[in-house]
Amino acid sequence: MIHQRLPESAPAGPAAADARPSGDARESRRWSFLSHHAHLLLALSEQPGARMRDLADRLGITERSVQRIVADLEADGFLERRRHGRRNTYTLHLDRALPSDLESEVPVATLIRALRGD
């Protein structure tokens, strides 16, 4: 079954014009099919020694958010963090299955290969 999007009706009242984002605001909002967790795994697969600051810049999120995501991925066994002096290196465990019930049979490696075009 194909669903068609219905045209939006014009909001009522003078205040309603302010409730809808302007064209510039709609264009500046970005969304992705992938989570920041997936983006971080992809980035680390390409640069296992990347600094948190560099990962944050690449993903467009805060360094604290990167730290939280790394902790999530480490706790769930998707990566291992090793300290080398003042730097970390990350070993990815790509044989692990994706965490969603819908993709529980798909290893992370399949997603990473598809995203990298391998």
Mean pLDDT: 82
Q: Report the β-strand fraction as a percent range.
A: 5-15%
Round the Cα radius of gyration to an integer and report it: 20 Å
Residue runs with pLDDT of under 50 for 5 or more positions: none
What is the CATH-assigned architecture? Orthogonal Bundle
Extended strand count: 2
Output the keywords.
mainly alpha, 6 helices, Arc Repressor Mutant, subunit A, two-stranded antiparallel ribbon, single chain, 118 residues
Can you describe this structure?
The protein is mainly alpha-helical and 118 residues long. It has one domain (34-116): Arc Repressor Mutant, subunit A. 43% of the residues lie in helices and 10% in strands. The protein is built from six helices and two strands, in the order H-H-H-H-H-E-E-H. It has a two-stranded antiparallel ribbon. Helix 4 packs across helix 5 (63-75).
